């Protein structure tokens, strides 16, 4: 017997950016489908026409494409006319078979009953009064054009399912009121639209955040009522901020696009997101996409809420960055250099690729993001003008006269140095430090600020070597002038 086809979907609403929780859900669906030879589908749930925007839809596409989570079939738009017609047809089918009924209660009447329940300190639950209307009364109201919603009649019993993440979950039907499936304007409520679409798309596994657990009993009832087989459900844990609360804008960036523009690599973001709700086993953390595909399984999915730690993300990004070489390294970081204005275009990168690869290899171990890598390497670009950082100068040049004397002596040694090699530069400066009775580290830091304007960076001797003699001496001359004149007012 042939195993059923694995078909999963990511179904965001285009009412905002692609947030990290949604990206994590898309990633888990994509990994599951790819690992089992299944199909990964994308459905845009745009039934809320007032809030859905083309801009948000594009942001979802851009975010998924940046992460490399490509879908396999044509995008489904939930609010399209053909899907709306199917949603309405399914609702009529339930009405015709007596599994749903028309409700003529107005929003004001329902609100008043909720207030009465609150006053009694009891939970409000629809009392099925419209389900008790006589058939002729219903026909008269419909003929008179009285607005109505369609409510699903919840049967007695208990709803249970075997969740891939949480094992068995049960809900007594008595806790679920007869819920609306069609609004008075004949548009579907979320639960009906989702089930109708998942049936039509032949979805085998519904994998989503555990904030949807409360929707699942209603959806299971609709699957049964529509005569469809249940998919398998998996509900992933929520993502929290460092304070233990649900991740939100107060924790900083929550949009995938924000991290793309902050120098995070897509492979690092995927790696980080995967570990928020899944474990490959052991202490393994840094993984490529092929490695995650090989290791991913439903047994590794976790129940515990995940914590979004930005510092951990940057550390992981640095790990991925340091492992890249050659063309892979250039392709990953070149867009950031173009955005920073260090290259006019990606084509201009190709013209100096061997030199660029060398510069990147020198600096990548010290960077955690591509933006940091830009900052570390910009001084090696032709025409770069060094700006002395005032705080770095204050810390490393506490006595201006002493600093100027040592930096000038360093310049004299470097000006006559041959050959211009990394080891020779190091030896010359260490010898000077010994002769002057100063520590090697303080002298090197004085020279670093003089040559780069900053107090951090790669090895100062290798920095000097890569800059070359002419640029190094020019930068030192600028620092000596800065020391003589003082910082700008």
Description:
- The chain has helices at residues 20-35, 54-67, 81-96, 107-119, 135-143, 190-200, 216-225, 256-260, 266-274, 289-295, 310-323, 326-339, 346-351, 353-363, 370-377, 390-396, 400-415, 422-436, 440-452, 460-467, 469-485; strands at 7-10, 39-44, 76-77, 100-103, 149-152, 158-163, 167-172, 180-182, 205-209, 232-236, 239-240, 306-307.
- α7 links the parallel β9 (205-209) and β10 (232-236).
- The mean pLDDT is 94.
- Among the domains are: 81-236, HUPs (Rossmann fold, 3-Layer(aba) Sandwich), CATH 3.40.50.620; 330-381; 390-485, Arc Repressor Mutant, subunit A (Orthogonal Bundle), CATH 1.10.10.
- The longest helix is centred in the C-terminal third of the chain and has 17 residues, at 469-485.
- It is 49% helix and 10% strand.
- It is elongated.
- The chain has 21 helices and 12 strands.
- The strands form 5 sheets. A 3-stranded parallel β-sheet has the order 1-2-3. A 3-stranded antiparallel β-sheet has the order 4-5-8. A two-stranded antiparallel sheet has the order 6-7.
- The protein is mainly α and 489 residues long.
Strand order of the largest sheet: 1-2-3
What's the shape?
elongated
Uncertain ranges: none
Main sheet characteristics: 3 strands, parallel
Return the CATH class of the domain at 81-236: Alpha Beta
**What is the CA-based Rg, rounded?**
32 Å
Mean pLDDT: 94
Estimate the helix proportion, in percent: 40-55%
The assigned structural class equals mainly alpha
Distance between the termini: 82 Å
For the record, the CATH architecture of the domain at 81-236 stands as 3-Layer(aba) Sandwich
Stated plainly, the CATH topology of the domain at 81-236 is called: Rossmann fold
Per DSSP, the total helix count is 21
How large a portion of the residues is in β-strands, by DSSP E? 5-15%
């Amino acid at each position: 017997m042939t195993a059923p086809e694995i078909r999963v979907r990511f179904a965001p609403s285009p009412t905002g950016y692609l947030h990290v929780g949604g990206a994590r859900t898309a990633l888990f669906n994509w990994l599951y489908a790819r690992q089992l030879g299944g199909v990964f589908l994308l459905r845009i749930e745009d039934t809320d026409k007032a809030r859905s925007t083309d801009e948000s839809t594009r942001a979802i596409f851009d975010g998924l494409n940046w992460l490399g989570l490509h879908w396999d079939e044509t995008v489904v738009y939930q609010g399209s006319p053909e899907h709306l017609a199917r949603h309405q047809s399914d609702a009529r089918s339930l009405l015709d078979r007596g599994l749903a009924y028309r409700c003529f209660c107005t929003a004001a009447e329902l609100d008043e009953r909720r207030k009465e329940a609150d006053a009694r300190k009891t939970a409000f639950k629809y009392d099925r009064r419209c389900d008790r209307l006589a058939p002729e009364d219903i026909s008269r109201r419909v003929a008179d054009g009285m607005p109505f919603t369609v409510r699903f009649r919840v049967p007695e019993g208990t709803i249970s399912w075997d969740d891939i993440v949480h094992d068995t979950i049960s809900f007594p039907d008595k806790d679920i009121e007869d819920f609306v499936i069609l609004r008075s304007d004949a548009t579907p409520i979320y639960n009906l639209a989702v089930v109708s679409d998942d049936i039509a798309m032949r979805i085998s596994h519904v994998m989503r955040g555990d904030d949807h657990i409360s929707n699942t009993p209603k959806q299971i009832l609709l699957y049964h009522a529509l005569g469809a087989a249940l998919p398998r459900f998996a509900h992933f844990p929520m993502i929290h901020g460092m304070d233990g609360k649900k991740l939100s804008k107060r924790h900083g960036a929550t949009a995938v696009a924000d991290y793309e523009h902050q120098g995070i690599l897509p492979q690092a973001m995927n790696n980080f997101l995967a570990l928020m709700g899944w474990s490959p086993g052991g202490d393994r953390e840094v993984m490529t996409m092929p490695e995650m595909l090989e290791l991913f399984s439903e047994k590794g999915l976790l129940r515990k809420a995940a914590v979004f730690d930005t510092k951990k993300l940057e550390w992981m990004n640095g790990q991925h960055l340091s492992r890249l070489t050659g063309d892979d390294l250039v392709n990953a970081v070149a867009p950031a250099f173009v955005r920073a204005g260090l290259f006019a275009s990606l084509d201009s990168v190709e013209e100096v690729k061997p030199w660029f690869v060398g510069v990147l290899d020198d600096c990548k171990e010290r960077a955690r993001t591509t933006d940091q890598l830009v900052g570390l390497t910009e001084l090696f670009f032709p025409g770069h003008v060094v700006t002395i950082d005032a705080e770095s100068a204050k810390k490393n040049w506490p006595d201006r006269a002493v600093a100027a004397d040592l930096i000038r002596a360093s310049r004299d040694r470097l000006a006559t140095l041959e050959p211009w090699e990394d080891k020779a530069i190091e030896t010359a400066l260490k010898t000077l430090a010994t002769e002057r009775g100063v520590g090697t580290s303080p002298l090197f830091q004085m020279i670093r600020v003089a040559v780069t304007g900053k107090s951090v960076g790669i090895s100062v001797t290798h920095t000097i070597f890569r800059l070359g003699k002419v640029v190094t001496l020019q930068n030192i001359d600028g620092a000596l002038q800065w020391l003589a004149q003082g910082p700008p007012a």
